[in-house]
Design goal:
15 strands, Rossmann fold, 36% helix
Length: 392
């Protein structure tokens, strides 16, 4: 029995027992992000899609196979599996593409292509999947990857191909939608959403985690990837000007030389934390920060942490990121500042607010925002796309 048949059997499914015969049974996601790296948009959405489909989350390869390329397939949740190619060390890019193509072909051998949804977070996966014609192709354009630091050389070429191949396109924010909307006829914006119940735990948490609990005094916090988008200079200036405030930074440091990180007594790098731990850390913060630089890499981002901080009951100060200014800043839900002085002034104001009056305003604003609602709306649009495609 091949690997895919085993997955079908494990989930008590076959290719012929679908209630809605026009809907594929399996969603294969091709991602540039490790499932266990940071819990964000892909995890929120695909965990929900696993209620309707077998979900196979295909990561980029590890270069650690002793001889021949192999796939490891690991169950992660009901109907959700992590698929990782392992390629021999020293394999060049052309060889890697060929090996991954063979692994993918063997994995879905003798299966009806119409029974698959291909869901792309990275256009680079077309290097080994372009030859296949699944029932539906979805491009969830979470970020403008071409503007990140050191993008792959062929990224823009592959995205042009993907935009032609895709049946439906989603974008990770409104500004990215405005940038892409003329490149596809079936494209929709889906800004960052929220798991309210998860982050509302911060409002009732009674004790902070040990590594944060021993930090005394006001705490201003950030969680997420610390990379070329993060304004380290802004944090350093605030820390120098407010030595009695503590700046708590949670998350992995990526694409930044650790020697360049500002080292002051009141800047605390606590490392990466699990998704389940985040509300307990945020519970101890007076103010949450979105201290992103304004550069190409942040031009179209829609930070998921914005509504998460708010659901946790913590006020937010952000640099003028377009998708934070619109709508959060415009509606007075988040304070916007451009420099250390502005951040400090905004934070001082937030430290004096009456939360009994502030929280109802926040709760009303985020009431209709949830990843479950996003999933439901996406699913409706995918179903419509399938029906339209089948009537052509």
């Amino acid at each position: 029995m091949d690997a895919y048949s085993k997955i079908l059997k494990k989930n008590n499914l076959s290719l012929s027992n679908e209630t809605h015969s026009h809907i594929p049974s399996t969603l294969i996601c091709f991602s540039h992000l490790r499932w266990d790296f940071v819990y964000q948009r892909p995890q929120h959405l695909l965990s929900r899609f696993a209620a309707r489909f077998i979900v196979l989350y295909v990561e980029e390869p590890f270069w650690d196979a002793p001889n021949e390329p192999v796939l490891t397939i690991t169950p992660r949740a009901n109907n959700l599996w992590i698929v990782v190619p392992h390629l021999p060390d020293g394999t060049n890019q052309e060889q890697a593409d060929r090996m991954q193509k063979e692994l993918l072909d063997n994995f879905i051998e003798n299966r009806n292509a119409e029974d698959f949804i291909f869901w792309y977070y990275t256009p680079m996966a077309l290097a080994f999947s372009e030859h296949l014609n699944p029932g539906v192709v979805v491009y969830d354009c979470m970020d403008e990857l071409s503007m990140f630091k050191n993008p792959p050389a062929r990224l823009q070429d592959f995205e042009e191909i993907l935009l032609k191949k895709a049946d439906i396109v989603f974008t990770g924010g409104q500004s990215l939608y405005e940038f892409k909307k003329n490149k596809h006829q079936n494209i929709y914006p889906f800004p960052s959403s929220i798991d309210k119940k998860h982050f509302e735990q911060a409002r009732t948490a009674t004790e902070e985690p040990e590594d944060q609990k021993r930090i005394l005094g006001p705490k201003l916090g950030f969680y997420g990837v610390i990379d070329e988008r993060f304004d380290l200079g802004l944090i350093e200036q605030m820390a120098l000007q407010k030595p009695d405030w503590n700046f708590v930074l949670l998350g992995p440091v990526v694409k930044i030389n650790h020697a360049h990180l500002p080292r002051l007594h009141n800047i605390h790098y606590l490392g990466g934390k699990s998704y389940n731990e985040l509300p307990h850390y945020v519970s101890g913060w007076n103010v949450a920060l979105i201290p992103f630089l304004l550069n190409d890499a942040t031009r179209f981002i829609s930070p998921t942490k914005t509504p998460e901080y708010l659901a946790a009951g913590v006020p937010v100060v952000s640099t003028p990121i377009t998708d934070v200014v619109h709508p959060y800043g415009e509606k007075g839900i988040v304070k916007i500042a451009s420099d250390a002085a502005g951040f400090i002034e905004a934070a001082e104001q937030y430290m004096q607010i009456d939360k009994t009056k502030w929280l109802p305003i926040i709760d009303e604003f985020i009431a209709d925002k949830s990843w479950s609602a996003t999933f439901t709306d996406m699913m409706k649009k995918i179903n419509t796309t399938i029906k339209n495609k089948q009537t052509i």
